[in-house]
Design goal:
CATH architecture of the largest domain: Orthogonal Bundle
Distance between the termini: 48 Å
Radius of gyration: 24 Å
Structural class: mainly alpha
CATH class of the largest domain: Mainly Alpha
Number of strands: 2
InterPro entries: Tscrpt_reg_PadR_N, WH-like_DNA-bd_sf, WH_DNA-bd_sf
Protein name: PadR family transcriptional regulator
Length: 202
């Protein structure tokens, strides 16, 4: 999607795509590795979504192949974008996994790691604000950088939640399960909860 988005602007060679993605901080939202990008370009060409339109050589530099998007690629991009906007994806972020594992660690250790996460989040939020300030100065239309606005909001929400968790653990509003053993913990799945609700309604 990131490659096809760039090719809406003009035909490009993979090196130019990589440089533009880094300049625009696309690597904040997709994993960007030159090797994988070249592999993806080859795959897109094989699927008929892009095609070679030119080759360029400057001095002794290696020849560069320039790609443009095909009509099939343009249609596929539009369909995929519509689906991704409309349908929430089942994603697997690491933080919930780590929170689930936290009770198996020492409470003081977990508190230290949560405080470190809060520090890291504040640093990333500050970096976001630098980028947003820059695009505002350049008077770029908001929809050209809307993904940065979303990520910035998401990080601020995560920081607020994490800071509240730290405060709740420090105050004792959330207690550490030192005394409870795993086999003593209640097991209540979403299905169980739904069945109980349905039973009460009936």
């Amino acid at each position: 999607m990131a490659i096809l988005e760039l090719l809406h602007e003009k035909p490009m060679h993979p090196y130019e795509m990589t440089q533009l993605m880094r300049h625009r901080r696309v690597d904040y939202r997709v994993k960007l590795r030159p090797g994988s990008l070249y592999h993806t370009v080859e795959r897109l060409e094989g699927q008929g979504f892009i095609e070679v339109v030119d080759t360029q050589r400057q001095g002794r530099r290696p020849e560069r192949t320039v790609y443009a998007m095909t009509e099939q690629g343009r249609d596929t991009f539009a369909d995929q974008a519509r689906d991704m906007i409309a349908t929430p994806a089942q994603e697997y972020p690491q933080y919930p996994v780590a929170l689930s594992a936290a009770s198996e660690l020492d409470q003081h250790d977990v508190m230290d790691q949560l405080r470190m996460r809060a520090i890291n989040l504040r640093a990333r939020i500050a970096a976001d604000e630098v980028v947003i300030e820059q695009v505002l100065k350049e008077d770029l239309p908001t929809m050209y950088w809307i993904e940065h606005a979303f990520t910035h909001h998401q990080r601020k929400s995560e920081l607020d939640w994490t800071e509240q968790l730290i405060a709740d653990l420090e105050s004792g509003r959330i207690t550490w399960p030192d005394e409870q053993k795993p086999d003593q913990l209640p097991h209540l799945s979403i299905v169980d909860e739904k069945e109980r609700s349905d039973g009460k309604t009936a």
